[in-house]
Amino acid sequence: MARNTGHTGPRQELSTVEAKLVRKLDWAILPVLWVMYWFNYLDRNAITVARLDGMEEELGISSTEYVTCVSILFGGYILGQIRSNMLITRVRPLWFMAGAMTLWAVVSTLTAVTKDFKGLLLTRFFLGVTEAPFYPGALYMLAMFYTRQEIATRISILFTANICGTAFAGLIAIGVFQMENAAGLAGWRWLFIIQGVITFIVSAASAFVLPNEPQNTRWLTAEERQLAHSRVASDTVELHENTSTWRGLLEASRDPRLWVLIFMQHFHMGASNFKNFSPTIVETLGLTRNVTLVLTCPPYLVSGVVSIA
C-alpha cells in the first residue's frame, strides 16, 4: 500500500489496521503473561502464609531459620538472572518462558515433601533460580511486539499480577487449609501441592499461546506478522548490529536514567520484603488465622489500582 504524504487517507487506514493488531496482541499475549506472573508471586509467597499453619513447628525450624529460607530465594534469583539473561536471546521465547514456569512449578510442589530446615532451604534456593528467568523474559517478549509508546502501559498492567498474587495468597490459603490432615498431610503441604500442580498446568497451556517472534506467530495473519515486525523495527533507536555486548553495556551505563531506575528499584525491593512478614505481623494483633489472612489482602489491592492509575 503506497503512502501519500499529501493525504491522510492511507495513514488513517494504516492506523486502523495497526490499532486492530495491537488489540489482538493485547488479548493474546498480556492475559497469558499476567496469569504466569500471578503464579510466579503466588508460589513465591506461599511460605509466608504456610507459616501461619504450623510449618515452622512441623519442620522444627526457628524464626531465624525461617528468615534464612525466605532470604535464600534471592540468592538463587540473582544466579538465575545472570544465566537467564545470557540465554534469553538464544532460546526460543516460548520455550524459555514455558520451560522456566514448568521448572518452578516442580520445585514449588517439592516444597510439600520437605522434612527439615535443610530441605526447605534447598527448595527455596532453587525456586529463586527457576523463577528468575520469567520477568526479564516477559519484558523481552513485550519489547518484541510493542513500541516504546505502548510498552509502558503494558508493563504497568503486567506488574499488577505480582501485586494481586500477593493479595490473594492469603485468601486462597484459607480454603486450602481446610484440607488439614487429608491423606495425612498438613494444610500448608496441600497449599504447595495444589498451587504447584496448577502452575504446571498453566505452563503447559502457555506453550500453545505465547509467540516466539512476530514473523512466525501462529495466530497472526501474514500481513499482521509483517506489520508487527516492521512497526517495532522502525521504532528502534540507534540499532547497531555490529555493536558488541560490552559496548552496549558501556553505553547503557552512561545513561543517567539507568542509575535513577536502579536507585528506585533498590528501595522498591527493600520495601517489598515487608510482604514476607506481613501475615506474621498482623497475627500479633491477636486475630485468628483466617482473619489475619483476609487482612493481608486489602493493602495490595489498593496498591494494584494505584500502580495502573
UniProtKB/TrEMBL annotation:
PROSITE patterns: MFS. The chain crosses the membrane at residues 21-39, 59-82, 94-113, 125-145, 157-178, 190-210. Keywords: Membrane, Transmembrane, Transmembrane helix, Transport. Residues 29-309 form the Major facilitator superfamily (MFS) profile domain. It is found in: Membrane. One of its GO terms (cellular component) is membrane. Pfam families: MFS_1. It is a multi-pass membrane protein. One of its GO terms (molecular function) is transmembrane transporter activity. This is Putative transporter. It comes from Colletotrichum spinosum.
